[in-house]
Amino acid sequence: MPDSTMEIEVLRYRPEQEDRPTFQSFEVPFNKEWVVLDALNYIKDNIDGTLSFRWSCRMGVCGSCGMMVNGIPKITCAAFLRDYYPNKIRVEPLNGFPIQRDLVIVMDDFIHKLKEIKPWIIRNEGQEKSVEEGEYLQSPAELADYKQYSMCINCMLCYAACPVYAIDNSFIGPAAIALAQRYNMDSRDQGNNYRNEVIASNEGIWECTFVGECSEVCPKDVDPAGAIQRGKVSGTLDYFKNVLLPWGGKRG
Amino acid sequence: MSPYIRHYPNTWWLKRRSYFLFMVREFTSIFVAGYCVFLLYFFYKLSQGPEAYYRVIELLKCPLSVILHIIAFIFAVYHSITWFNLTPKIFILRIGEEKLPSFLISGANFIAWVVISAILAWIISVV
Known about the structure:
The complex is a heterodimer. Chain A is built from nine helices and seven strands, in the order ββαβββββαααααααα. By secondary structure, chain A is an alpha+beta fold. The longest helix of chain A is centred in the last third of the chain and has 21 residues, at 224-244. The mean pLDDT of chain A is 94. By secondary structure, chain B is mainly alpha-helical. Chain B has a domain at 12-92: Up-down Bundle (3 helical TM bundles of succinate and fumarate reductases), CATH 1.20.1300.10. Chain B has four helices and two strands, in the order H-H-H-E-E-H. Chain B has a two-stranded antiparallel ribbon. The N and C termini of chain B lie far apart (76 Å). The chains are: A alpha+beta, B mainly alpha. The A-B interface holds A 13, 15-16, 20-21, 71-72, 95-96, 98-100, 106, 140-141, 144-145, 163, 166-167, 209-213, 215-216, 223, 225-226, 229-230, 232-233 and B 1-6, 8, 12-13, 15-16, 18-19, 22, 26, 86, 89-92, 94, 96-97, 99.
């Protein structure tokens, strides 16, 4: 066990005993291989077993352990104590979401928005292939078009970084729009019109003011901010096609 | 036991450098828009004949107008630079599977800016 320790300040909210969240400080051993999630697990195992937080894979894949670390959204399994030592670390639940308990947020709104954008391959009627007919083929270049946007792990850090979402959570938000773009740009998909009903609505891409922080905090370099701006460009082009060309907007 | 909703402070944009720079970028657009309105006014005066036009020119020479012009110029430059730097996010060009490097896309904007400014400066100097 290392000699030095570190202070971790955690936002606690225990609805059965308090009306509003308060900070609680814990002293944890400083271990330079530890991440913030290790420190939280140390607290839960050795100091206070009632501390609640979500985690699963502890290797940056599952997207469960997103929290605010010193005010910045991070997946805590990738936030090393050594990057903060000897200063204290303040851990809070993700910004912009209601707090269920301690570091656990209510994510219903996000899940609902993910479903709304229809994140699956949609084919025009009569153009679906049966299993016997085989797969829809795609070239490496066509895959490269959307691959970046398909790397999302739903960690919600982008929502926590987005002031637009925090101020008005009717905004569809970065991850859901990036996922919509992921399918819109997929050469096998024909569902743009369905998704655009949602992402080109008042709560969609036009709410975004391009703060760009969603892309900064993304642990998977998905670049949701880029996806949203590209959505604005294609949305504008579609609009002009619809207005100017008699056959515009109709799908071939 | 209902979930707790935290209040999002109005000073959010002071909490992080990137938020602050975003707000500065948004703020500079007021000056860009303001200058467009001024240019429209200027053209309107020009349409009223040489006398009205020279009255505006005289007015523009006062120190307050010079200071405002310098401020508007600095903000317009900041606005342009920040937006040109964002273009690679919006405009993605692929050659096969490879993405064109972002500095080429933002660089093209800067080059176009310099070239157009040089042409305008040349036209003004000739006329």
